[in-house]
Amino acid sequence: MKYKILLTTVYLLLAVMTLFANMANPMSPHSITGQLVPAAKLKVTNERIDIHLLADTADYNSDYRSHFSIVYNIHAEEAIELPLVFLALNMDGLDRILVNQKEIEGKKMDQPGSKFPFLRLKDGYYEISYDSDEWKSISLNDAFHFTAKLHKGDNSIQVQYSAYMGYDRRDIRTRYQIDYLLFPSRYWSSFGPIELYLHLDGKMDVLTQDLGTAKLQTDSIVHWRIDQVEKKESFHIEVGLKTSMLAQAILWVHPELLALIGSICLLCLHIRCIYLKYKTGRYRYALLLGNLIIPSSFYFFIWFWSSLANYLVNGVFDEKSRGFILLVIFTLPLIYLVYDLVLFIIDRSIRAKLNR
User: Which residues form the signal peptide (predicted)?
Assistant: First the structure.
C-alpha cells in the first residue's frame, strides 16, 4: 500500500511541475545596455553609474523602468576628437549626452548613407571594430554614435538614458532585471573603478545580484564598487517591490509546494477514513466522497495560495499563472482517473487485510 501512496504522490508532483506551463511568451521587453566603445586608446580614470527606478505612470500595469546616468572621467594626453559608440539592446530612449558639461547630439547609426571608420559590412552583417584585430556583429538599430571633443587633461562624458527592466509575467512578485555590459572597458587604454549607485527610494528590495558585498546598503540606496572592470563581462541585478513577511514566507515555500502538502494531508486523511470504514463501520461513503473532492482540491489549494500571495503582493486576489484554467481543463480528468483507480485498489487492499 505504501507503494500506491508513493505513486499518487509522484503523480501530484508531476502535476505541480507542469502547472505553470508557458502558454505564450511570458517575458516582458528587456534592455541590455553597456559602456561606450572607444575608437582610440584613452584612459578612463573612473566611472560613476546612477540607476534610478521609476514607475511608468503611462503603463496600465504600472511597470517600472530604469534610468541610467553614467559619468566617465577621462584623461587625454592631448586634445582629440573622439568617435564613440553606445550600444544598447531594446533601449527605451537616449535622453542626452554631455561632454564637459556641454550637450551634444547622439545619432543612430542606421541612417542612410552613414559611414564610419570603425564599421564595416561583411557577408550581409554589420561589424564594429573594438581594436584593429577584433570585429563583432551588431544591429545598427541598437547603436548610437557621437563625437566627443576632448581637451588635454581631464574630461567628463555623461550619458543619460532610460531602459526597460525585463521580468517574467508568471511571477507573483515581479523580479525586475537590470543588465549592463562591462566588456567594452578592456578596449580603453586603462579603465579605473566603477562606483555604482542603485537608488531604491524605500520602495524596492534587491533580490539578487552578482556584484558581491555592497559598500553601503540602506532602504533608499545601494552602493557597489567594481574594481578590475575589464575582467568582468557584465553585471546583473534583480529588484522587486517591498512586501510583507507573510507574502515572502508563502513565496519562499512556494504556493505549489503548499498545495502539494495540503493534498498529501487530505490523501492520508482519506486513507484513514477508508480504514475506519472497515474497522468500525463508520464513514460508509469515505471512498466515494474522497474520490470526488480530493483530486479537485489540489487545484483549489494552488489557486488559494497563489491568489493569497498575489493579494498580499499586488492587492488583487487572483491566480496569476498564464494558462491555469486551460491546464486544469486538460489535466483534471486524468488526475481523477489515476487517483480514483489508486484509491480503489487501496480500498480493496484494506478490506481484504481486515477481513482475514
Answer: 1-21
Nearest CA-CA partner of 91 in 184, 37, 159, 157:
159
Provide the grid cell at 279.
Answer: 474497522
pTM of the full structure = 0.75
Q: What is the pLDDT of residues 175-226, one digit of tens each?
A: 999 998 887 787 788 888 999 999 998 888 999 999 999 999 999 999 999 9
